[in-house]
Amino acid sequence: MKTLILASLASLIVTAIAAPAHSQATDAAPGERLFQQRCGACHQLATTRNGVGPHLQGVIGRSAGSIEGFKYSPALKGAGVTWTPETLETFLTSPGAMVRGTRMTQRFNNAEERRAIIEFLGSH
Ligand code: HEC
């Protein structure tokens, strides 16, 4: 009985995961969906509201640690980095390796996803 419930739960989850992947082909901006999934819990893009992380509106061309009212780590504040597609690529691959002591600790290992997300950030 327990196995049966687990099995149907698993198939429900598979369906839920498979559905958006299927519609990806027609998705004009896969980066938007990826941004929501990978970054959206901590970062806003559509508004200038800060959350766990600073908002990312206009992030390309911005100096690291420059959003007024967001309490950055001293590490990021003093990083002396300007966000470009290249520096974002390095940061997302391993934030702590680029800015030792940053409070953003997630690494994003999938190069395709990083590229799509950075492209999406560049369009905002
Ligand atoms: C669990 C929360 C969390 C997630 C998920 C997350 N971040 Fe962050 N991010 C942070 C925090 C916190 C900071 C501030 C770090 C600091 O002050 O050292 C930050 C900082 C940044 C910065 C520097 C912004 C600035 O103003 O200098 C960029 C760029 C960034 N994140 C991009 C992303 C992207 C893109 C993703 C998704 C691929 C992502 N983050 C996912 C929490 C997160």
UniProtKB/TrEMBL annotation:
Pfam families membership: Cytochrom_C
Domain Cytochrome c: 26-124
Coiled-coil spans in chain: none
Protein's name in the database: Cytochrome c family protein
Record bears the keyword Nucleus: no
InterPro entries: Cyt_c-like_dom (IPR009056), Cyt_c-like_dom_sf (IPR036909), Cyt_c_1A/1B (IPR002327)
Organism, as annotated: Sinorhizobium garamanticum
Organism phylogeny: Bacteria, Pseudomonadati, Pseudomonadota, Alphaproteobacteria, Hyphomicrobiales
Leader peptide range in chain numbering: 1-18
Keywords (A to Z) from UniProt: Electron transport, Heme, Iron, Metal-binding, Signal, Transport
